[in-house]
């Protein structure tokens, strides 16, 4: 079976990204509602609002550049030599280079949020975040270097044949390594917290899987795994995953921000259940102290004989 035609692949990829953008828009609106209207603090967390806005702005710019590329490839340049296939094969085209840069910036912010969650889940232990931070920095360097080389390079006949894609391969591999390391660390710690404290709450037992999947960024890790597999297979189906990931890298972190705003992360549940356990133990200790201070009826000496008749 032959590979999918590049022009068709790109058309479907833009459509898929538009669908995910609709989800991203809904999540962003929900995030603003939670952080402003449903906030649990007296002040709005401006850092979370700024991060969510940056993610949404970058993902909006990425999908916004897709339509002009479709118009240029299928309408403006359709009668040029090679047609749409030649146009979409040229990744050094300016709009595509800008999209790559936006994708890289979005991934950096997304990785930063995941590292932050890893830091929080592991009780703010910096040692657990050393490897993810190093991988995230290396991925960012390779991603931006690939963007610069792509923008400055001459036109190439195919995306997988150009030497600048050594940087792209490195960026994809390091992004996957970053995602897998952070996802594993968060999932292990979250599963432990929910396993220990989840037995106290039946509702928590049912929501355990949802919390682990969302908070650990497992969805992004799976998507990146598919993306890098298709890329190293030199399959045009790579773009069917690559474009929607530009929205996923905003959707997943925004969902985590919503959970943090609603205080539904594993840390928040851990804290509430711990406080509940302390309050309950204190209440039980109070009952025991009252019981020990009560009069023990079996130690009262009742009068016998004549003394009993006098009492009656």
Summarize the structure.
Keywords: Membrane, Transmembrane, Transmembrane helix. With 312 residues, the chain is mainly alpha-helical.
- Beta-strand content estimate: under 5%
Name the CATH class.
Answer: Mainly Alpha
Label the CATH architecture. Up-down Bundle
**Secondary structure: number of strands:** 0
Q: Which shape, going by the Cα principal axes?
A: globular
Helix content: over 70%
Termini distance? 106 Å
CATH topology: Rhopdopsin 7-helix transmembrane proteins
The stretches of 5 or more residues where confidence is low (pLDDT under 50) are: 289-312
Number of separate structural domains: 1
What structural class results from the helix and strand content?
mainly alpha
* Rg over C-alpha atoms, rounded to the nearest angstrom: 29 Å
* Oligomer classification: single chain
String of helices and strands: HHHHHHHHHHHH
- Helix tally equals 12
Main beta-sheet strand count, sense and barrel state: none
Question: What is the averaged pLDDT score?
Answer: 80
Keywords: Membrane, Transmembrane, Transmembrane helix
Transmembrane segments: 12-35, 47-67, 97-116, 128-152, 172-197, 209-233, 239-262
Folded structure, characterized:
The chain crosses the membrane at residues 12-35, 47-67, 97-116, 128-152, 172-197, 209-233, 239-262. Keywords: Membrane, Transmembrane, Transmembrane helix. The protein is mainly alpha-helical and 312 residues long. The chain has one domain: Rhopdopsin 7-helix transmembrane proteins (Up-down Bundle), CATH 1.20.1070. It has helices spanning 6-36, 46-64, 66-76, 83-89, 94-121, 130-152, 165-197, 202-215, 218-232, 238-261, 266-293, 306-311. Helix 2 (46-64) packs antiparallel against helix 5 and helix 7 runs antiparallel to helix 8. The model is unreliable at 289-312 (pLDDT under 50).
């Amino acid at each position: 079976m032959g590979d999918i035609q590049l022009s068709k692949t790109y058309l479907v990829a833009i459509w898929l990204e538009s669908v995910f953008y609709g989800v991203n828009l809904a999540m962003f609106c929900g995030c603003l509602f939670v952080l402003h209207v449903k906030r649990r603090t007296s002040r709005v967390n401006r850092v979370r609002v700024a991060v969510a806005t940056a993610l949404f702005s970058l993902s909006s710019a990425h999908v916004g550049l897709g339509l002009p590329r479709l118009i240029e490839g299928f309408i403006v340049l359709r009668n040029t030599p090679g047609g749409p296939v030649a146009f979409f094969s040229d990744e050094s085209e300016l709009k595509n280079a800008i999209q790559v840069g936006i994708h890289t910036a979005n991934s950096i912010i997304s990785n930063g949020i995941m590292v932050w969650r890893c830091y929080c889940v592991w009780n703010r232990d910096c040692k657990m975040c050393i490897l993810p931070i190093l991988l995230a920095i290396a991925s960012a360097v390779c991603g931006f270097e690939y963007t610069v080389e792509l923008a400055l390079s001459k036109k190439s006949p195919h995306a997988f044949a150009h030497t600048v894609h050594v940087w792209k391969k490195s960026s994809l591999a390091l992004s996957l390594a970053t995602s897998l390391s952070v996802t594993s660390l968060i999932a292990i710690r979250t599963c432990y917290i929910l396993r220990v404290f989840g037995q106290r709450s039946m509702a928590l037992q049912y929501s355990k899987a949802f919390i682990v999947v969302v908070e650990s960024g497992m969805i992004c890790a799976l998507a990146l795994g598919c993306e890098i597999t298709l890329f190293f297979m030199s399959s045009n189906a790579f773009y069917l995953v690559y474009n929607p990931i530009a929205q996923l890298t905003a959707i997943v972190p925004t969902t985590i921000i919503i959970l943090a705003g609603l205080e539904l992360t594993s840390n928040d549940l851990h804290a509430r259940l711990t406080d509940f356990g302390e309050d309950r133990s204190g209440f039980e200790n109070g009952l025991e102290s009252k019981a020990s201070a009560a009069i023990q009826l079996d130690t009262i000496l009742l009068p016998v004989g004549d003394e009993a008749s006098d009492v009656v």
